[in-house]
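hi!! sorry for the late reply, been swamped w classes. u asked for the two structures so here they r. pasted raw, havent cleaned anything up. first the sequence of the first protein and right below it the tokens
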Amino acid sequence: MQATAKSITSSALTLPQKSRALLADILLDTLDKVVEPIDNEHAWIKEAKRRDKDMDSGKSSSQSHKEVMKAAYEAIGCKR
């Protein structure tokens, strides 16, 4: 007899909290390896291409680390 997601879920919900947390962690680890890197990789490539296009067109500009840090310290009222 093959277990269904519904029956497995019903059984899992009767477990103590620590056991449910461990089971959730194990299940999430299996999804991260299969789903997330693929989805994230495509999304980040698309974002990188968009940012590159914005830089080339002059729509956005960059700042040096020194400029960013200076502005951050000024924003919080910290003298350096």
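now the second protein. again sequence first, tokens right under
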Amino acid sequence: MLLGNKISDGLKINIILDHEEHLNQGLSKAESIRRICREWLLTNDEAAAIIAQDEAEYNEDKGEIA
């Protein structure tokens, strides 16, 4: 089991890319997380935290374009 701060940035990027690919294939978010848990040997909480962090960064206010 990998713990949140011990997961490398490279591994997180690959997990996020897998998640995006799963969504493109028509899987729901929950199905994608379950598949990631099996493929990457993560707990549900670990996978959900990685995806939530990425979504928060994506939705973060970037400011106005002048």
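hope this helps!! also noticed smth abt the second:
The mean pLDDT is 88.
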